[in-house]
């Protein structure tokens, strides 16, 4: 540790009497016996990223524990008082299935109450979309959910929601972070005022479930003939999705028993992430065995959903987030078109999601707004454009939001909407898959692929920074033979045409993202993750599709094109 004296000093600051004896003993042992682990725990403070603050649970400033969450909560309490005044403040807190989420949620509630703030704490685990809903339903000034979404079991996290029910965005995020950074750990008020902590459950559950059914239901035919296999992947959606489907009229719902019990160790999967094929293996096996029409899986806090539907050969095939988003959005557009567009509608997506969203929306004459990665930006659009009507929106990472009653990605309502689309299609002699292919015929066949590279620890963070520097200093001149005609650097908010050096401003907040667009419409995006120790590369290619019968050949050609682009990039 001699080469990092500031890290050692940071660690020793946790040896005062303010910290629990067990914490002090652990740090002393790390100093004496495991400097490498000590370095990783104290080389930085946990930061707010695209999905709040996430990290490995344990002792240290770079870990999730009662002190790091307590400090964040104390800073948020100070900021709420500064913004709204000291009286009448209210917050709502939810937590998911992760290990220690319940006890950490209690710590957060106690710190809020110690600061004189009324706290509404869910009695048991609840979904993230219900927390977002509860902020506005209970007229709270803020909300917090304890979750690490789809991260591995050793992680937990802390997501902050503002008065509108959306996650914090500028200027609130920077101001809250500044309020937190000003504090020392010794300034955390840990002594609770129990009379300010109110336990809630059904009084919010019922309105949320009713709103989910109302927003996700379209009166589809054939609900009682539509077979669904559902897995919550040991997460919170077991508290909402089965009931929502039941109330909407779906009677053939098979729940994967091995994954129905909430469990923060996620014993049946490598990763509780519906983006991963392996996570849905049990559900797909069951779906094939019983001849189910659709398989649905959700992540631990129930904001992401993955679905598998019958493909052209009759096999269950997992769709990616872009595909699900496209068909859901088209369905919402068709639904509004049937009643008549008013001219104020908009849909939303993100800069790393499929460009097909903008192409499709333009065909309907509807505005498609594109944001930075993260649903907090889509929720912000609802506030930024109060005179426009938000129909729905999504992102490639398996998230979708239907309407504005929830201000975050919502796997509860989106699951119902996906089932409605599929049940209606089946009743009409089609299928979810066939309707997706029709979208490709109408708007072009788009294929996307995500490559994620994990780079852990202080060295990994440095490597990710160096990779982004390399792409900025030595950008690709072409992708699969098509010249790059536009480079979007969101760190400077400038887009450049490398052919003549001309440039224009990007009207979005700055972010560490690079996007390269070629003459033939191919796209490559590079972006460090805001929630995991990863750097992500998003590739999108497209080609015309004349008929559904041509899909296999066109899709295969586009997949081969992506393979060639990846070979050129030599990522490692």
Automatic annotation (TrEMBL):
Protein name: Phosphoglucomutase/phosphomannomutase, C-terminal domain
Record GO terms (molecular function): magnesium ion binding; phosphopentomutase activity
GO terms for biological process, alphabetical: carbohydrate metabolic process; purine ribonucleoside salvage
Keywords on record: Isomerase, Magnesium, Metal-binding, Phosphoprotein
Domain called Alpha-D-phosphohexomutase alpha/beta/alpha: residue spans: 47-185, 217-311, 320-439
Family annotation (Pfam families): PGM_PMM_I, PGM_PMM_II, PGM_PMM_III
Organism ancestry: Bacteria, Pseudomonadati, Bacteroidota, Flavobacteriia, Flavobacteriales
Matches recorded under CDD domains: PGM2
PROSITE patterns assigned: PGM_PMM (PS00710)
